[in-house]
Amino acid sequence: MRFAVKGLLGVLVLTSSLSVAGRSAWAESLNEAMAATYSSNPTILAERAGQRATDELVPSAMAGWRPSVSVNGSITQQWTKTPVGSSAPIFNGAGDAIIGFESSTSRQTIKDTEAGVAIQLQQPVFRGFATVEGVKSAESNVRAGQQNLLATEQNILFEAVVAYMDVYAGRQFVALARENVGVLQGQLRASNDRFAVGEITRTDVAQSQASLANAQSQLAESEAQLAAAVARYLEVIGREPGKLRYPKIHPLPKSLNVALAAAGELNPNILAAAFVEDASIHDIGVAKSPLYPQVQLLAESGISDDLRNNDGTTEYALVGAGFTWQLYA
């Protein structure tokens, strides 16, 4: 049900509707209200979706153990100019004898076209502990996210408990305020009757009227607080309250020290902070990894062809290992 609240008339309409809702046919326990909140509250659902994204940090970090495969292809055309020398005889004036040779140089352009394709596999062997530390950092971040999700769930469920009890208490206050108004209305009628026979003065009647007006004001305030409590209930739990039952109260810890010890072991905010600290320590290890040697295995196979000479296709394959160590940066 949706309410359009416009001024005092809207408040009266809303409070009368709440009175009907308070007499709803179904009864809802606190556990049922909390279950509905846990399964449908949008804040909890959003936090769970964020946690699913955080969970992917571990597979991403573990990618450092896995090989990488790439295919490279190329086609090139090259133009080369090379000098070409030649000589011609020089004859005497009569043209019957060679008296020398004259040399000349020209440039010849050669066009060469080559094409090739290769597939390469690289397998990391040692990355300076970067993968080890990265995986541990990701796992700690995931655990921290899980504790943050648990903290969010606890906070929202606590808000659901508060909303449930506010509606329950609000209905009791409204009932008491209405009963008080009824009693004071009866007293006012009695005061009018007594004034009519001269037993009391007009001042006494006015005091009865003031008491009734004050009670009616308190009733309106209680109904407004109940309307706000119902709206908060609808926001947190996701549905309008039915007939609510007073919940069973579980016993508190035996002492403050027992409560503090339990909080130190179970409080999700404390545990999340501990996991964040652990992740930060491993992040330091990732940052130090470039100071260590980097070792990887390499395998490559490919073909190439000189399209100009038509000498056939050249095939090759190689395997090896690579090693780098940055000594100073």
Percentage of residues in DSSP E strands: 15-25%
Task: Output the strand order for the largest sheet.
Answer: 2-3-5-6
Helix content: 55-70%
What is the chain-wise order of helices and strands? HEHHHEEHHEHHEE
Low-confidence region ranges: 1-25
Count the E strands: 6
Largest sheet: 4 strands, antiparallel
Helix segment tally: 8
What distance lies between the first and last C-alpha atoms, to the nearest angstrom?
A: 68 Å
Task: Write a structural description.
The model is unreliable at 1-25 (pLDDT under 50). The protein has 329 residues and is of the alpha+beta class. The two termini are 68 Å apart. The protein has helices spanning 7-22, 30-40, 42-55, 57-62, 130-196, 202-237, 256-266, 268-288, and strands at residues 27-28, 68-91, 98-126, 243-244, 294-306, 313-324. The strands form 2 sheets. It has a 4-stranded antiparallel sheet, with no helix packed on it. α1 crosses α6. Helices cover 55% and strands 25% of the residues.
How do you describe this structure in short?
The chain has 329 residues and is α+β, with helices and mostly antiparallel strands. It has helices at 7-22, 30-40, 42-55, 57-62, 130-196, 202-237, 256-266, 268-288; strands at 27-28, 68-91, 98-126, 243-244, 294-306, 313-324.
Looking at this protein, list some descriptive labels.
329 residues, alpha+beta, four-stranded antiparallel sheet, two-stranded parallel ribbon, 8 helices
